[in-house]
Amino acid sequence: MRAIPRIERVNGRLKAPPSAACTLTSIVLASMSDGPTTIHGSLDMDESRYLVDALRRIGVEVAGTFRDGLTIGDRVGISANDVELDIADASGAIPYLIGMLTFTPGHFLLKGRDQSRDWSAVLVEPLRNLGAEIDYRGEEGRLPMQIRGKVTRGGMEIAVDHTISGEFLSAIMMGVPRMRGGVDLVLHQPLPPSSRLTQRLLEEFGGIAENADSNTLKISAPAMTRKNYMVEGDFSAGAYWLALAAAAGGELSVEGLPVDSAQPEAAIVGILERLGVSLTVSEGTVALSAAGHPQGGRIDCASSPGLVPILAAVAPSFAGPLTLAGLTDLVAREPQLIKALQSALETLGVTSSLSGDQFTVQPGWDASPATIDPGGDPRLVMAFALAGLLRGSVSVEDEQAVAHTYPRFWRTLDEIVSSSAALHSTGLTP
Asked: Is 76 helix (H, G, I), strand (E, B) or coil?
């Protein structure tokens, strides 16, 4: 359990860690490419470690380190027996591994301890409909899974509508190098945010995504190669501190965030600007200056659902209610997340409500000591650590859960507390 100190205002300068999504996607794409790819600046976390270990176990040449550069080579060996891959608690690697193994020749047994999410509707069944051979060794939709991977005949059409998940589309895009003829995505609605990021990386590795007509996106990768790839900074991580500074007031600069990023959480810049916060973006640095306690309002999070826990956790410090809209897909796919947010906010004396696709958080919280149980979800651990900084008298359980996605989170929080406390002790106002 971690006790969170209260801060008055935020002052600091920090560097965003490497993007977790870009790290995992680039590792998979490198394994699908011709020739070696050296990935620079990747994030050393549980998920990336288990993903790299899985590549080694299935016969892919891997050299180097996360710190000095990770070189992913060709697959040089194929086992005639089942290859057992145990990812323990690194649940964030599950969709990447299911997608990669589906299009990799061989027999694989994917195991792990996390049984919290059902993967059948969002990923496994759509892949089965394309001919994937995936069987459950236990409960339907959950690990362990038996996967018989193979090179797949491409040339098919996939209709993209509200029933298609971002995990499935990303798996298809990452598997395109092993699909003869590629795939046509018939767009009845825009690509999910996570899939747009995968598309960007696929193109950077030499894949092709082109519009055949107004609503058909042709994805192919006849010859994919990339000698070096630099992982960009994580807007998801940066969003925590930017949202904190907007709510508390102060000045904060976050380095390493590319202006043209396809990460869904890059929307935090525009969202905070709409809430009246002053931001400057230049040369990979986002600089924020805020008076604190923004007025609130209505924010559409349909394209950036990852920001919902962050914004909900800091919203009680706003001067007015904050409504997070466009949550139809999020509510359908992760109903437990909204329930967990409401429960944690209630523990802090905050009123919130869900109506249709809109989640509204009222301003204000009580001052009584409170302990937040995030249920092992690193998003909630980090989001309500922010709430603790703003409110005070808050402790957060499962502090170790951040190792899965943002290993340096607590160190960065301590740095923010230290620099902000130093500013407060001088009596200066940023």
From this structure: coil
